[in-house]
Amino acid sequence: MAHATTREHGAGHVSMDPIAQSSAVHRPRAAHRLVVAAALLAAVVAPGVLDAYTISLATYALVLGLLASSAYVLTNVAGLPTLGQGAYLAIGGYTAAAISHTITTNGPAQLIAGAAAGAAAAAAIGVLAARTRGTTFLIITLAVGALTQTLASRAVPLTGGDAGLAVDPITVLPGASLVTVKGYLYLYALVCTVIIGGALTLMLRSRFGLAVRGIAANEPRARADGYPADTYLWVTYTVAGAVAGAAGAILVATRHTIAPVDGGFVVSGLALLAALLVTRTLVGALLGATVIVAVRDLIAPNVLAGHASALLGGLFLAAAFARILIRPLIHRSEHAPARRSP
Amino acid sequence: MAGQVIIALDGLAFGLLLYCVAAGLSLSLGVAGVFQLGHGAFYLAGTCLAWWLAEEGSWRGFSAALVVGAAAGAVAGGGLGDVLRHLREHLDQALATIGFGLILVDILTASYGAQPRAVEPPPGLGGSIGVLGRSYPTYRLIVIAVAAVLATVLYLVIERSRPGILVRAVAADPDYVAALGVQPRRVQVVVMAAGGALTVSAGVLGAPILGPSPGLDSTMLTLSLIVVVAGGLDSIRGALFAALAVGQIQTTAAVAWPSAAPFLLFAVLIAGLTWRTRRHANTVRVT
């Protein structure tokens, strides 16, 4: 037993890592549950307390949070750091806008169409992207994001170019009236976020999710065990594309506009930052997005008016260096019980 | 026909400038192992320097911008390389350099006023020369010549000279170089400094063609990343071919069919990746 603990980082022991990680997923600590419950409660009562401007910010925080969830699934679960999820947000958003203009004002239908478009685009790109790892994957996703943004600003007949596209309000139930009140739109976004977040959580706890964690932790071992790593990661990339596409549809439904910059490099970067900022959990990604929107749109105008991006830059730097400052502490607390147990 | 040659010349000028920028990125990634996403901001800083010191076009201002730019780029690049060594994961380096880039671009944008600015070429280079019966801006031909010289020097230094061999050795196996008595870290910082100087100088050089404007930094970053990935993370020769191809796509294809350019860029990326994957399977899996 002591032998096993001293080989904590040995090659033979690495395959245990995903199981050690996933046990935290299977048995959420009471504190984690409390945070989730408190966040959900705060999110539900928010429209009764906050003013219209803050509510619209909270709505955008949910959109960015969903985008961050898709970045979380790729970066933290599948071990594929991404800087291009904004591309699928844009694809989902423009699809929802096109549906709104031509077929139906029904919000959920637009959401499904946006998610499907995001998934289809990610499935196509993923054939190439999901075969690469590490820095190459990061650069390819970044290029995909940037090229999608260029395409969106050039395809003027479809997207309205850089000026963006105005979209009609949505209906939620067939035959019901258009939803225009900010508080109701926020609740629509909240319900969608909870449903999608719940579905993602189930997926991550399934055998498939555990296998993806295993591939991220030790790919040669997972391959040797018979898991088709490229296929599993391709499916994960497609699912992340669907979530980002859904985020785009929610953005269009709640803000009634979409422009190429909504899926640009900075937004993709913010999604990655949100996924890494607070804790490395799905709820952490949503909280991270809330922190980022609060810093950019509530704190920056009061502290550094006109320099929100510099403040966000500081947040990026803090996240990068905090991770090396905090990592030794986390490392110690992870291994301390293992040393004591035998 | 003559019109196409003119556009192809534009593409050559842009491609060679892009090569200088991408070479800095390729060196920092391949040799120093530093993932530098603030590279586009460095280029923007170069164009801003040219706008500050030589907006109306003067030799003194332009050469001052080149000297100051190269020095500041070397200090910033070397400093960044030294700081980023402490972040061993590329993901952390990506976050840190995005943050650095955002802050730098924010400061630069405030200084040039967030609108496209034009920079005059130095006196005597502002006119045009007849090429195949059409007039062509002299300055662009100068840029082609200067960037071609820079590219050749860079190629010879990396591929043929003794310091270049050292640099490639650090990229291949830093521990072995350390065993030979050379500190790989010192080589890495020098390479980062050279990359920074090259990028800011390219910005100064390119400013009279494409002055400071919003989004220039992310455009240059994306294009040079595409060049680096398509050309190979550690191949200075592959980067040259990729940069020339991207330069042509950004001009020739953009004139012929504007919305096709993003697809063609992606095709270059895929072509470079698959070609290299077939040649040696391990290069794609860089972590």
Commentary on this structure:
The complex is a heterodimer of chains A (342) and B (287). Chain A has 342 residues and is mainly α. Helices cover 78% and strands 1% of the residues of chain A. Chain A is built from 16 helices and 2 strands. In chain A, strands 1-2 form a two-stranded antiparallel sheet. Chain A is globular, with a radius of gyration of 20 Å. The N and C termini of chain A lie close together (7 Å). In chain B, 74% of the residues lie in helices and 3% in strands. In chain B, strands 1-2 form a two-stranded antiparallel sheet. The model of chain B is unreliable at 280-287 (pLDDT under 50). Chain B is built from 11 helices and 2 strands. In chain B, β1 and β2 form a beta hairpin. Chain B has a single domain (2-286), classed as ABC transporter involved in vitamin B12 uptake, BtuC (Orthogonal Bundle). Chain B is mostly helical.
Question: What are the SSEs and their pairings?
Answer:
The complex is a heterodimer of chains A (342) and B (287).
Chain A: H1 2-6, H2 11-14, H3 17-26, H4 30-49, H5 52-77, H6 86-102, H7 107-129, H8 134-154, H9 156-159, E1 165-166, H10 182-205, H11 207-217, H12 219-224, H13 229-255, E2 257-258, H14 265-277, H15 282-303, H16 308-340
Helix pairs in contact in A: 3-11, 4-10, 5-10, 5-13, 5-14, 5-15, 6-7, 6-8, 6-13, 7-13, 10-13, 11-13, 14-15, 14-16, 15-16
Chain B: H1 2-30, H2 39-54, H3 59-84, H4 90-112, E1 128-131, E2 134-137, H5 138-160, H6 162-172, H7 174-179, H8 184-206, H9 216-231, H10 236-256, H11 261-279
Antiparallel strand pairs in B: 1-2
Helix pairs in contact in B: 1-5, 1-8, 1-9, 1-10, 2-3, 2-4, 2-8, 2-9, 3-8, 5-6, 9-10, 9-11, 10-11
